Amino acid sequence: MKKTAYALLPVLALAAAAPALAADLKNNDDVAYEVYVETSELEQTVTIGANETLGDLCHDCYVEIVDTGSALTIGEEEHVTITDGQLSAE
Predict the structure, then answer these.
(1) Rounded CA gap, 80 and 88, in Å?
(2) What is the C-alpha to C-alpha distance for residues 72 and 25, in angstroms, rounded to an integer?
(3) Does the pTM exceed 0.90?
(4) Quick check: is 59 in a domain?
(5) SS3 state at 24
(6) Where residue 80 sits, what CATH number does that domain have?
(7) Rg of the chain taking only CA atoms, in angstroms
(8) What tens digit of pLDDT does each residue of 1-10 get?
(9) Closest CA to 64 of 37, 28, 40, 90
(10) pLDDT (tens digit per residue) in 17-53
(11) What phi and psi values does residue 9 have, to the nearest 5 degrees?
């Protein structure tokens, strides 16, 4: 039993050290948007260009398109898209 517990220690250490995967944001529109992003650690506004993708935007965060008011609370490993000025998670 003790051998099994000791064998699992490296696996548990790696799992605890693994970073959370962040959501990607893809803009399917032909216009750029200002996007407000709020996490437990920071608040910022980022610009996403027309037909651009921002990788690793955030995880467990609130995202809002400033001009349209479309908003989502997103978790980990999600793909978020902007289409016709509206946010959606996949």
Answers:
(1) 6
(2) 12
(3) no
(4) yes
(5) strand
(6) 2.60.40
(7) 18
(8) 454 444 444 5
(9) 37
(10) 445 578 999 999 999 999 999 999 999 999 999 999 9
(11) -55, -50
Give the pLDDT of residue 78.
Answer: 83
Domain annotation covers residue 68: yes
Closest alpha carbon to 46 in 78, 80, 77? 80
Distance from chain centroid for Cα 18: 16
The Cα 41–Cα 57 span in angstroms is 13
Domain range for 76 is: 20-89
Strands 23-27 and 33-38: unpaired
Residue 5 DSSP SS3: helix
CA distance 51 to 34: 14
